[in-house]
Design a protein that fits this description.
about 5% strand; two-stranded antiparallel ribbon; mainly alpha; 3 helices
C-alpha cells in the first residue's frame, strides 16, 4: 500500500513540475511576442507521459543556499529540455515572421493553470483522506 501511495504522490509531483515547466515555456513565448522570427514553443502531453513512464529515482533533499542568515538564496529554473517549437496551427504569422498570438498563449496558460489547480486539489484531498484514515481528524 505504501508503494502505491508513494507512486501517486510521485505522479502528482511530476505532473505539477511538468505544468510549471509548461508555464515557463508559455511565459517565454509571451515575452518574445515582438521578437522577429520567433516561433512559439510548447511541451506536448506525450512528453509528460514518457517522463512518467521512466523509472523513478529517489529525490535528493533540497538544499537552500543563503547569502545572509536572514535571507534565502534565489532559486533559478533552467528552461525545460523538452520544449519544442511547434507550428502555428490556424493562427496567423506576423510579417516579421513572429508566430506568437497572445490570445492563444493566454488560453494555453489558463488551461495549464486549471490543470495545476486540479493537481493541487487532488493532492489536498488525498492528504485529507490519509489523515482521516490514521485518525488525526480533518484539517
Amino acid at each position: 500500500m505504501v508503494a502505491v501511495n508513494s507512486r501517486l504522490f510521485g505522479l502528482l509531483s511530476a505532473r505539477q513540475a511538468w505544468l510549471g515547466d509548461r508555464q515557463t515555456v508559455l511565459a517565454r513565448n509571451i515575452a518574445n511576442a515582438d521578437t522577429p522570427g520567433f516561433r512559439p514553443q510548447d511541451l506536448a502531453e506525450d512528453e509528460f507521459r514518457r517522463a512518467v513512464a521512466r523509472p523513478t529515482r529517489p529525490v535528493a533533499p533540497v538544499r537552500l543556499g543563503m547569502t545572509d542568515p536572514a535571507h534565502l538564496a534565489p532559486t533559478r529554473h533552467a528552461p525545460p529540455d523538452d520544449a519544442r517549437p511547434r507550428t502555428a496551427n490556424g493562427w496567423e504569422v506576423a510579417p516579421s515572421g513572429n508566430a506568437v498570438v497572445l490570445e492563444e498563449q493566454a488560453e494555453q496558460m489558463a488551461h495549464a493553470q486549471l490543470d495545476h489547480q486540479l493537481g493541487t486539489d487532488l493532492y489536498r484531498k488525498y492528504v485529507q483522506m490519509w489523515r482521516t484514515a490514521v485518525g488525526s481528524g480533518h484539517g
